[in-house]
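Q: Please design a sequence for this.
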């Protein structure tokens, strides 16, 4: 999924860019949990907490920043730079009952999208095809990782969804996912294995 322009991501120079590296801002200019990986998100929250414990004035968590400006969150990150926020202080993954970060949201969403494609009708009628196009178009507007959604819309303009049959949709989805995989430096998935992965399970029966 080639980006026309990347998300607003904090760089590592604390003096010129106040947010921690990896933190992505949403369209509202505030730190965006669903656009950011858990580690970067958690670091910001921990710097804020450390600041509070050291007698600072911060009182919001990063996740509860709905009323804060990007500037105030950013300022917190600057003030607390180096205040006990090394990698070892941050768990690799969030507890299961936390709101999703970019990775958790991505895995859950791909699971839904590929499974939906795997069970799409072999020969959809006109109405079903229109509904699927509409669903994917709406999805690409509202996917809550803003820069991910923007890439998806760009790619959908270049290669509109193929909805004429189950296999067409499943392969189109596989291609979209592989574009993201490539962009993120991951291996491509073998689309010949779509049904095995998302519908039938492997022939050794371990999923039965
Ligand atoms: C629409 C969308 C756009 C995204 N854009 C971005 C982005 O711009 N930047 C970003 O950092 N993250 C993005 N993500 C999240 C990213 O794609 C991953 O979901 C996330 O990094 C977690 O990756 P993962 O390695 O755990 O597995 P995932 O990539 O989430 O894959 C889950 C499982 O799907 C299977 N799979 C993998 N590839 C395919 C394929 N091509 N076809 C079928 N099955 C497959 C594998 O079994 C894999 O374990 C996006 C997610 C979505 C849904």
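A: Design:
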């Amino acid at each position: 999924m080639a980006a026309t322009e990347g998300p607003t991501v904090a760089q590592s120079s604390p003096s010129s860019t106040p947010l921690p590296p990896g933190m992505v801002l949403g369209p509202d200019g505030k730190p965006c949990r669903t656009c950011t990986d858990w580690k970067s998100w958690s670091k910001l929250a921990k710097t804020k907490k450390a600041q509070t414990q050291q007698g600072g004035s911060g009182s919001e968590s990063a996740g509860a920043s709905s009323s804060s400006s990007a500037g105030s969150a950013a300022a917190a990150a600057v003030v607390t730079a180096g205040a006990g926020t090394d990698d070892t202080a941050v768990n690799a993954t969030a507890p299961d009952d936390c709101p999703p970060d970019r990775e958790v949201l991505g895995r859950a969403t791909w699971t839904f999208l590929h499974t939906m494609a795997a069970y799409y009708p072999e020969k959809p009628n006109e109405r079903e095809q229109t509904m699927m196009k509409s669903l994917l178009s709406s999805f690409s507007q509202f996917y809550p990782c803003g820069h991910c959604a923007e890439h998806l819309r760009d790619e959908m303009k270049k290669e509109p969804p193929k909805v004429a049959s189950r296999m067409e949709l499943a392969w189109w989805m596989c291609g979209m996912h592989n574009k993201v995989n490539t962009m993120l430096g991951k291996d491509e998935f073998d689309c010949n294995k779509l049904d095995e992965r998302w519908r039938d399970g492997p022939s050794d029966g371990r999923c039965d």
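Q: Thanks. Anything notable?
A: The CA atoms of residues 46 and 85 lie 7 Å apart. The chain has a mean pLDDT of 80.
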